[in-house]
Fold these 4 entries.
Entry 1:
Amino acid sequence: MDQSNLAVNQTISFDTLKTSAYASAKINLGDELDMDDLGALFAVNDYFQQRLGHSVFSSIEVAAIGDALEKHGIMYAEVQ
């Protein structure tokens, strides 16, 4: 099967979207992100990145995600 067809047919659950929205709100409030927040943010970003061809994270979100990942002992580098 063509990989591009897989990307187009991918869906995201409402719970993932909701968790991602709450995580974005946490970022705006300066609250810490937990692993569920990070997973949802990455899932939603991946979903839209496959359609748009670029990340949908703002520079503030990238910084907050990087800080949260480091707090959890995970190194993160976004490839442009």
Entry 2:
Amino acid sequence: MTAALVAFVQARFNEELEKARFAGDVVVAQPERFGVEPEDAARHARFSVAAAEARLALLDDTVVPYLGTAGPGGLNAEFQLRLLAAPYVEHRDYPHDKEPADQPGSHT
């Protein structure tokens, strides 16, 4: 499940990065169409891309390397992965657990 969830979250984050790049290009090319100043359009485009890149870096550099490790580091990485995946739980491709009660962060 963890490998499937990592692949799923990476795919969503890569989609968001591509959307941010595309939207930024459109808005920067035609800021008047959207009622914004060119400088504001460029700043927002840079922010959107940077935010998407940061989510990918967080996942790839601080979560994935610790998944499956023993102790608190591994448990924390598993919990962080589930938090990063949480906004996508209703996505049609979300890899749902068969027994969610056995997963970190699934207890109410």
Entry 3:
Amino acid sequence: MKVVGIIIVAALIAYFEISPMANKKEIKDLWVFSFLLLIGTVLSIMLAIGVPIPNPLDGVTKVLKPVTNFILGLLE
């Protein structure tokens, strides 16, 4: 039921936001808006059905930890 609600809300947002953009010929804005709405909708549906979504900070930490250790090793 949550998934249907999320899809309905996303469709309403798209309806009210995309129509004016299309009428004004704002093609780049339309693409960016559609892409971000799609990402938000997919992530919301994934959360609603219980799929674990990783924290982006974990990836940043994994990449920067060796760099930090290297720099700290140079400073010792």
Entry 4:
Amino acid sequence: MTGPEHFKTAQRLLAEAPEQHDQEKERTYVAYAQAHATLAQAAATAQAGGPIFNEDGEFVIGGMTEPQEASWKTVLDPEGTTAE
């Protein structure tokens, strides 16, 4: 699962938690959402600051590749409302 996929899953689980109509199930959904949110944050941190290779196989110090950045933008701003 990619960072953006973890982020989407966390959002979905948080939205579905109140629909469970059972406190224990709701807490479970929230706990799973927190775990996915933490994994999304770890992925974003690793991609943004760690050494990576770009799509041409060249070593890059920090920063995201264009596909990685596009994946995050799609999740964080699905309607494309943020100005660049």
